[in-house]
């Protein structure tokens, strides 16, 4: 799962009171932000293994901290505490934490077994990456559907929402179609950070125009 992780962020951002769409975009991918940072430090590991699944060549063979359910819950709790510290609203903070937790459950749908409950086997994953004609419409459908729901509720500028949709679809296309690397280098993490940053900045730009459609009437 890649852009599909932002679907819960968009649903949460559609609420009148929320942490803000950019903050929620960070929440949705926070597990992977930390994962790729830990990869740079050698604390979690991946390798390219073409054929490990039909759609994704990444063999995520060692990620006990970020992609265990326990680790995700800890990350979510810390993020919720940070949001509460800034906004002093318990409900907003809990929803932001729930968006972080959604990452693990969406990954559970698509990953081949590489997720854990507490960093040790059994490894879990339903493997939709092996079923492209299920995973592709699922990922695009939940993301674009959530984006429409957000637009319908918050009424940001239509052209800006269209730009966010384009950015997300292009990022997903790159994720699906980019050539497979021969080895894992620091560039893998830097490319991930670039994609997450681009999507988050575009979401922030969209969020600045919330209510624009109503004001223009």
In short:
With 217 residues, this protein is mostly helical. The chain is 64% helix and 4% strand. It has one domain (3-205).
Listing every helix as H and every strand as E from the N terminus to the C terminus, the arrangement reads HHEEHHHHHH
* Outline type: globular
Q: Helicity range of the residues?
A: 55-70%
Order of strands, main sheet, comes to: 1-2
Describe this structure in words.
It is a single chain. With about 220 residues, the chain is mainly alpha-helical. The chain has one domain. The chain has helices spanning about 5-15, 20-40, 70-85, 90-110, 130-155, 160-175, 185-205, 210-215; strands at about 45-50, 60. The chain has a two-stranded antiparallel ribbon. The termini are far apart.
Feature tags:
217 residues; 4% strand; 2 strands; two-stranded antiparallel sheet; mainly alpha; globular; 8 helices; 64% helix
Question: Topology, please?
Answer:
Blueprint: H1 6-13, H2 21-41, E1 45-48, E2 58-62, H3 69-87, H4 90-110, H5 132-154, H6 158-177, H7 186-207, H8 212-215
Antiparallel strand pairs: 1-2
